[in-house]
Amino acid sequence: MRISEIDTPAILIDVDVMEANLNRVANYAREHELRLRPHTKTHKIPALGRRQLDLGAVGLTVAKTGEAEVMLATGTPDLLVAYPVIGQKKLDRLVEVARKTRVTVALDSLVAASQLSDAARQAQVEFGVLVETDVGLGRVGVAPGDELVALGKGVANLPRLDLEGFSFYPGHIKAMDELGEAEIGKLSALVERTVHQFRVAGLPVRVVSGGSTPALFHSHLVAGVNEIRPGTYIFNDRNTVECGAAQWDHCAATILSTVVSAARPGHMIIDGGSKTFSTDRLVTGEATFGVVREAPGALFHKMNEEHGYIDLRRADKQDFQVGDRVRVIPNHICVAMNLHERVFGVRGNEVVETWTVAARGKLQ
Q: Of 57, 66, 281, 316, which residue is the least packed, with the fewest Cβ within 10 Å?
């Protein structure tokens, strides 16, 4: 099948670019002796998780129990649920996953740890645990220092839980400019101090898990880190380019759209809106939703559910007609993937693979 035969809107994945991205990060992790446990939140496709494993990943990362269930199809020897699992229904399902592969859970409370321990004891399984610390994002994670050590000690005393170390997410570091590099230095000092505190307290630090795509290639500068969990790197998007973590030719994913209206001079409407691209803005806060590859300078400035508004008045190309097709690099590919049932792997103008987005909508 050729790209011209695909109905729109649809996500296209340039397979050659994707494979180059995968190899680049696998080689980086190998060179710096970092465990690579990539986050599957971006692709949500077992076949792509399998490719990451085949390139040397030690396991895979997910956010939800439903994603863990889907990623069992990869044959992974290890799954990290990088999100507190709260609630008996989720835990009942997670123990079934733990019967099939090694499962580690990142958590930031004794409430979550106790629920996990109880579920593990009742099911006669074991879970690994990473206690999570907040290093600056202000999302989840206890404060580093005494609070984190106390949480680690509490987990270590719970039955059927194996404390492996600690985790963090440096999501506050958005760009590797001078300020970002200074933040990496602060993060390194903090993580190194935390490792020392764990050792003094007699707590294990077999795994010190961090990493994000924006700061990915600076991970080796963070003292004590031995595992990274990037996700977006497999495809990249406009935000990773804006952060300086990727170049435009590293963007494997585009959203193929059709011009459905050119009634207003200097403007066009495409057949993809918030149900196609998501409403995520740029990390810079700019109110645009993607880059139109065929029209440099165009402003994708507004969306309704099914309509994408493109201002062409400053674009290099302005003479689009109804029925023309364009490819848009979205701001945030992870959320866009969750909106599509299937995506198409392409080489040149040919569709070479079609993947079902199997973990789409797995919110529980």
A: 316
